[in-house]
C-alpha cells in the first residue's frame, strides 16, 4: 500500500514531504499523517484517514495540472472531460470549493471546472459553490454570463437570497443599478419573497455604490408594501454619511423615530464618525448627550472613533479625556481601544504612561495584545532610541501564542539599527530573524527602507547588494531609490555599479 501510494505521488509530481496543503491543513501537524505509517500508531482508522486526506490533495493537484486555459470555459471543460485521470476522479464538495478558490481570478477555468464536476456520476454542487461561481463571474465583469448563470440556477431551483445579493452588488458596482433593481423586482420568479430583508439588501447595495438618492426613491416606493426596520434606517444613515451629507443622516435619525424604530448605538456612532471626519466636535458632544438622554450608552467603538479623531487634530489632552469619559460610563476597553490609547500617548510623548497601559492595565483587564499593540510599542521605543526596551517587547511578542511579528514589527528596528551605527552583525541578526525564524518575505517598503538607510549610513556597497536581491525577486525599486543609490556610488567612484543602476533606470523609464 505504501509503495503504491509513493509511486502514485511520484507519477503526479509530488514530493512526500510537501503533500500537506497549508490552505487545507494548516492547523494539522505533519506528524499526525506520517506517524501512523512509520510507527503503526493509533491503528487502521488513522491510516485510512491519512489515505483519504492524501487522495484529496492528490486529486486537487491532478485536476489543477490538467486545466488548460482556452478561449472560453468550453475549452477548459473539454480538457478535463477528455483526460483519463480526470475521468477517474470522483469530486467532492471540498475539492470543488478548493478548485474554485484556486481559480477565482480566472473565470474561464473556474466555470470549466464547475461544469466538469457535474459530468461526474452522482455529483451535485452545493449552494455555496453556485454562489461562489456567481461571485467569480461578477468580479471578472462578466455580467452577461453571470446573469445567464443565475437564470440557469433558477431552472434548477438553486437561487437563494444570498445569490441575489451577490448579483445585485456586482451589477450596481458596474454602474448597472437599474438592472440590480430589476433583479429585486423579479424575486418572485426565483421563488423568493420581497420582504424587509430583501429590500435592505437592495438598499444597502445602492447606498454602498453612492446611489443613495436612487435608494431613497426605491424606499419611498416600497415603504407602503414592505415595513422598514432599524437596519433599513441605519443603511441610509451610513449611506448619507459616506456621501458626506450628514444633515440628511441626522434627518434619517429623526425619521427612524417617527416609524417607531429606536436609534441604537450603531445609528449614533455612524453620525459621530462623520462629524469627527469634519472635526466638528461640538456636534459630536451634542450627539453623545442625546444618546445618553435616550438611554443609549456609547460603546467602545464610539469612544475609539472620537479619541483617534482628536489625536489626528493634535488635541492630545482632550483625546486622553475620552478615556476618563469611558470609565465614567462603565464602558470596558478592548484591544483596539488600547492600541489607539497607546498610539495617542506615544504621539503625546507620554512614554511612561504608554508602557503602563501595555504592561499593567491591559493584563489587569484581561485584554490580550495583538500584533498592532506590540508594533506600536516597538515603534515608540525605537523612535526614542530605546533599543533594549524595543527588543524586550519583541521577545515578549515571540512568546505570544496569539500573534507573531510581521514586517511592520521589524522596520523600526532596522531603521534604529542603521541610524545608530550598529555593527553589521546586528543588522544580519535582525534580517535572519525575519527571514529564517519568522519566514517573512521582504516587500517593497522594507527593501526601500534598507537601501535608503544604508545610503544614509554611507554603506552603498551593501545597499547595492540589497538592490540586486530585490530585482532578483522581481520587486521593482522606486525610481527615487535608484537615484539616491546612484548618487552615492558615484561619490565613491563605483563606475561599474553606477552604469548598471543607470541601465536599470533607463529601463524603468521605458
From TrEMBL:
Swiss-Prot/TrEMBL PPR repeat ranges: 229-263, 264-298, 299-333, 334-369, 370-404, 443-477
Protein name in UniProt: Uncharacterized protein
Alphabetical list of NCBIfam families matching this protein: PPR
InterPro entries: PPR_P_subfamily, PPR_rpt, TPR-like_helical_dom_sf
Gene3D superfamilies hit by this protein: Tetratricopeptide repeat domain
Recorded family membership: Belongs to the PPR family. P subfamily.
Keyword Ribosomal protein on entry: no
Signal sequence region: none
PANTHER family attached to this UniProt entry: MITOCHONDRIAL GROUP I INTRON SPLICING FACTOR CCM1, PENTACOTRIPEPTIDE-REPEAT REGION OF PRORP DOMAIN-CONTAINING PROTEIN
Keywords, alphabetical: Repeat
Native species: Aquilegia coerulea (Rocky mountain columbine)
Amino acid at each position: 500500500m505504501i509503495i503504491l501510494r509513493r509511486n502514485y505521488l511520484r507519477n503526479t509530481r509530488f514530493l512526500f514531504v510537501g503533500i500537506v496543503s497549508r490552505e487545507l491543513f494548516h492547523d494539522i501537524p505533519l506528524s499526525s499523517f506520517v506517524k501512523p505509517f512509520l510507527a503503526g500508531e493509533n491503528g487502521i482508522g488513522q491510516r485510512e484517514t491519512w489515505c483519504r486526506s492524501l487522495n484529496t490533495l492528490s486529486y486537487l493537484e491532478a485536476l489543477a495540472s490538467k486545466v488548460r486555459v482556452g478561449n472560453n470555459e468550453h475549452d477548459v471543460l473539454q480538457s478535463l472531460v477528455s483526460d483519463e485521470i480526470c475521468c477517474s476522479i470522483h469530486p467532492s464538495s471540498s475539492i470543488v470549493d478548493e478548485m474554485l478558490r484556486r481559480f477565482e481570478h480566472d473565470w474561464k477555468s473556474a466555470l470549466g471546472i464547475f461544469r466538469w464536476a457535474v459530468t461526474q456520476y452522482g455529483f451535485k454542487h452545493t449552494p455555496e459553490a453556485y454562489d461562489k461561481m456567481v461571485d467569480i463571474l461578477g468580479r471578472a465583469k462578466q455580467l452577461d454570463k453571470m446573469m445567464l448563470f443565475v437564470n440557469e440556477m433558477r431552472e434548477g431551483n438553486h437561487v437563494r437570497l444570498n445569490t441575489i445579493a451577490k448579483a445585485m452588488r456586482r451589477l450596481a458596482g458596474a454602474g448597472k443599478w437599474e438592472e440590480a433593481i430589476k433583479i429585486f423586482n423579479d424575486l418572485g420568479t426565483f421563488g423568493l419573497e420581497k420582504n424587509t430583508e430583501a429590500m435592505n439588501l437592495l438598499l444597502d447595495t445602492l447606498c454602498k455604490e453612492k446611489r443613495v438618492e436612487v435608494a431613497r426613491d426605491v424606499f419611498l416606493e416600497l415603504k407602503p408594501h414592505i415595513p422598514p426596520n432599524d437596519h433599513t434606517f441605519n443603511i441610509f444613515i451610513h449611506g448619507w454619511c459616506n456621501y458626506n451629507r450628514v444633515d440628511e443622516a441626522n434627518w434619517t435619525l429623526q425619521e427612524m423615530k417617527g416609524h417607531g424604530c429606536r436609534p441604537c448605538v450603531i445609528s449614533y456612532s455612524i453620525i459621530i464618525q462623520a462629524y469627527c471626519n469634519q472635526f466638528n466636535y461640538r456636534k459630536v458632544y451634542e450627539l453623545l448627550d442625546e444618546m445618553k438622554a435616550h438611554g443609549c450608552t456609547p460603546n467602545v467603538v464610539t469612544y475609539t472613533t472620537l479619541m483617534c479623531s482628536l489625536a489626528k487634530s493634535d488635541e492630545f489632552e482632550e483625546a486622553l479625556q475620552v478615556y476618563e469619559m469611558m470609565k465614567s460610563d462603565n464602558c470596558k476597553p478592548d484591544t483596539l481601544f488600547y492600541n489607539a490609547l497607546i498610539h495617542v500617548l506615544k504621539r503625546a510623548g507620554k512614554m511612561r504612561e504608554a508602557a503602563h497601559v501595555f504592561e499593567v492595565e491591559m493584563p489587569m483587564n484581561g485584554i490580550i495584545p495583538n500584533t498592532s499593540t506590540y508594533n506600536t510599542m516597538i515603534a515608540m521605543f525605537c523612535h526614542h532610541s530605546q533599543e533594549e526596551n524595543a527588543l524586550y517587547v519583541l521577545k515578549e511578542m515571540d512568546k505570544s501564542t496569539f500573534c507573531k511579528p510581521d514586517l511592520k514589527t521589524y522596520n523600526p528596528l532596522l531603521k534604529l539599527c542603521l541610524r545608530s551605527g550598529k555593527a553589521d552583525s546586528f543588522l544580519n541578526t535582525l534580517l535572519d530573524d525575519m527571514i529564517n525564524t519568522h519566514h517573512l518575505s521582504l516587500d517593497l517598503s522594507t527593501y526601500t527602507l534598507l537601501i535608503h538607510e544604508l545610503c544614509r549610513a554611507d554603506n552603498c556597497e551593501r545597499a547595492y547588494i540589497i538592490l540586486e536581491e530585490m530585482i532578483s525577486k522581481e520587486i521593482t525599486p522606486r525610481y527615487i531609490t535608484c537615484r539616491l543609490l546612484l548618487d552615492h556610488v558615484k561619490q565613491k567612484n563605483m563606475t561599474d555599479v553606477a552604469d548598471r543602476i543607470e541601465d536599470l533606470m533607463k529601463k524603468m523609464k521605458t
